[in-house]
């Protein structure tokens, strides 16, 4: 049953509490059709079978059917269709606006997540198929940053392995993956999905071995192919620290390995990222204090201005009263 957020004030999250005891937040991203929803459904049933059900959040306002038992659903808070008609927006604009509106309630989402019992080890966020809505919007950053400031958070990028068999498309996917990593700067896992159709080993080999990738481009001398070759060299460092797992969301293979990767990413978060998150939190707190100071100064000035105006008005009234009196006296004397 979805938590109803409308008009409900959740308790304030226990700021500063140690992230080590908190569940891991998994943000699932991927191009439309890569299999995000099927993947979330699969990992949910995997955890369910192990009697470790996750807490689930759907962030896709336009999805028709959510095939897993969602706990928080963006569709309960915002009506995507009425946003389209209300603001005269197209489908993508309405998704962006819905996500923006939902983000204003992120503190409540965090409260709900924060008050989950310790048995809840994972909180999974399914995102809109229009990947750029999340990756390149302010709301995507706010959601990821606010989660990471309280919980170990991992970004999972689901790729359709079938669409990667061409080296050029593979490179496009890797560049996108690299840009997501750069944007969120959080532990990152690539899920090579649909391995029941194509084995993912070729993609992992291309990441590790430049020569194997170069060989795959052998017969192609086009501009895009040459560019792809040079890009591959540039991405060498990115590949070095990259975790990728092959999964079939349909069959359920590779899910075990996926959770091992998530648990390592959680450790990585606690060791490597937490200090950055702490610094980020401090920076945000400093900015907030500065903002409050400015607001206070503005209020002080406004108050002073009002007082001055009032004083001036009283002075003017007193002056006009006394000149009236003077006039009256003069009239009486004459
Ligand atoms: N063979 C195979 N098909 C898969 C797998 N995962 C997903 N699919 C299929 O891929 C299609 C898209 O899957 P979805 O889960 O809807 O993909 P999505 O990324 O959530 O798509 P959007 O809702 O558009 O963002 C569906 O037909 C799924 O059945 C897989 O592991 N193997």
Summarize the topology.
Blueprint: E1 24-30, H1 36-49, E2 55-58, E3 72-73, H2 74-77, H3 80-87, H4 91-103, H5 106-114, E4 122-126, H6 131-135, H7 138-148, E5 153-160, H8 167-184, E6 188-193, H9 201-208, H10 210-216, H11 223-234, H12 236-240, E7 243-246, H13 255-333
Parallel strand pairs: 1-4, 1-5, 2-3, 2-4, 5-6, 6-7
Helix pairs in contact: 3-4, 4-7, 9-10
The structure holds guanosine-5'-triphosphate.
Guanosine-5'-triphosphate (GTP) is lined by residues 30, 32-38, 129, 193-194, 196-197, 248-250.
Would you mind describing this structure in some detail?
This protein has one domain (24-279): 3-Layer(aba) Sandwich (Rossmann fold). It has helices at 36-49, 74-77, 80-87, 91-103, 106-114, 131-135, 138-148, 167-184, 201-208, 210-216, 223-234, 236-240, 255-333; strands at 24-30, 55-58, 72-73, 122-126, 153-160, 188-193, 243-246. Mean pLDDT is 85; it is low at 4-17. Helix 8 links the parallel strand 5 and strand 6. It is an alpha/beta fold. The structure holds guanosine-5'-triphosphate. Guanosine-5'-triphosphate is lined by residues 30, 32-38, 129, 193-194, 196-197, 248-250.
Largest sheet at a glance?
A: 7 strands, parallel
Poorly predicted sequence stretches spanning 5 or more consecutive residues: 4-17
Determine and state the CATH class.
Alpha Beta
What is the CATH topology classification name? Rossmann fold
Secondary structure class reads alpha/beta
Shape: elongated
Give me the number of helical elements: 13
- The helix content is 55-70%
The count of domains is 1
| Average pLDDT metric | 85
Radius of gyration: 28 Å
Strand content: 5-15%
CATH architecture: 3-Layer(aba) Sandwich
State the strand order across the main sheet. 3-2-4-1-5-6-7
- Order of H and E elements: EHEEHHHHEHHEHEHHHHEH
User: Total number of β-strand segments?
Assistant: 7
N→C terminal distance: 91 Å
- Which molecules other than protein and nucleic acid are bound? guanosine-5'-triphosphate
